[in-house]
Amino acid sequence: MRGIYLSVKNDTEGFRLPVNPETVNVKNKGDGESFKIAKLGSVNVPKDVELKEFDLESFFPAQKYHFLETDFREPSFYTEKLEKWMNDKEPVRYIYVDGSFIINELVTIESFEYDESYGTADVNFTLALKKFVPFGPKKLKVAKPKTTTASSKKKPAAVKKKTPATQNKRTVPQTYSLVKGDSLWKVAQKYTGNGNNYSELAKLNNIQPSQYRKLAIGLKLKIPPSWTKK
What we know:
The chain is an alpha+beta fold. The protein has two domains: about 5-30 and about 40-130, Pnp Oxidase, Chain A (Roll); about 170-230, Membrane-bound Lytic Murein Transglycosylase D, Chain A (Roll), CATH 3.10.350. It contains five helices and eleven strands, in the order E-E-E-E-E-E-H-E-E-E-H-E-H-H-E-H.
């Protein structure tokens, strides 16, 4: 069944037009911009399509007619509703149904004009509607960080400080300077506990047997690495 319905507040308030318009107009218009280009002439640059517009023209009856589509109320009921919605800037749900052709849009009232027919008290009207697109700031949900209990918090692994060898061990020199009364045998005895290891010390420092008794005080001897290992 052909019919037009207007409502607000999620269809909690509204009405059906008692008399359907003869025609229902839908206006789609682009928002292109024209430019003139040398040797080419005018060109049009297409942009986003403008909001749809709808025009309705009918009347609110003051008396009963055989062609009325629904029960009707006094014309002032309809005019006052439409004026209030327009003044309150209420988005209006506009529904038109005619078989398979359906319009279901949220609109705003752009203009509302009416006048009374002489002799009948019927109120003629024209209604201009424009599609409404809801807009406004959106609430964003901020994810809260997960709270952790003291027992669930993982403590960072303790880092063991490495104690330098010089702090917990006596530094063993890699060389030794002879003092008065020293000999290769005494140095070997000092480092290895066995003076008979002197030959290893002599070999490392290229000291010949003929030089054993002529070693100068202060002579710096290289100590075999195996002697200094702990």
